[in-house]
Amino acid sequence: MADEQTLNTAVEDYLAGAEHFLGLVARVRPDQWDRPGLGDWSVRSLVGHTSRSLTTVADYLAQPEPDLIEIDSVGGYYARIQGLAAAPEVAARGVAAGVELGDDPLRAATERRDRAAAAITGIGARAVTTPWGGILLSHYLPTRTFELAVHGLDIARALGAASTLPRPVLMSALATAVEAAELTGQGEQALLILTGREQGPISVV
User: Which residues constitute the domain of residue 189?
Assistant: First the structure.
């Protein structure tokens, strides 16, 4: 019962994060798509990258379940991929995903959300295969909620727009960040920063 409730909560948080993301995409004006988004990404590329949190869920669920669970927690996922966010192929996939949004990015992003939502509707506990190993869906979905939350903030900043994350999405993302910080040896530093005792960067991705 606990596992089922964990999965149900993960699904609800994920869908709330996806809805918040679509609300931000709807606010992008035509003249804003090519403005700077994050790093080398334009707003279009940033939105494209973020939308991969929708496509990967549907894609991974379409594959057979893995035989092994190699990643045993939400934070463990980020411990496994730490440092890979800066890889050139990640940047390239974001650009490609942005291009694939086409002439109507909101419609394309909505279609990606709808596909992901259909894939997880009524689903039971199971695992999915990722490029970094098998992981329970109840652990994988919070990593996608985390991406939707963090990059949602990035999109809002790029647009110069005010945006407040839904509380369940924010709480899920914070829990993921704290767990990942601890597993990557940054837990004490994160605590010092959160309590205003120190300033400095922490990277869990």
Answer: 2-194
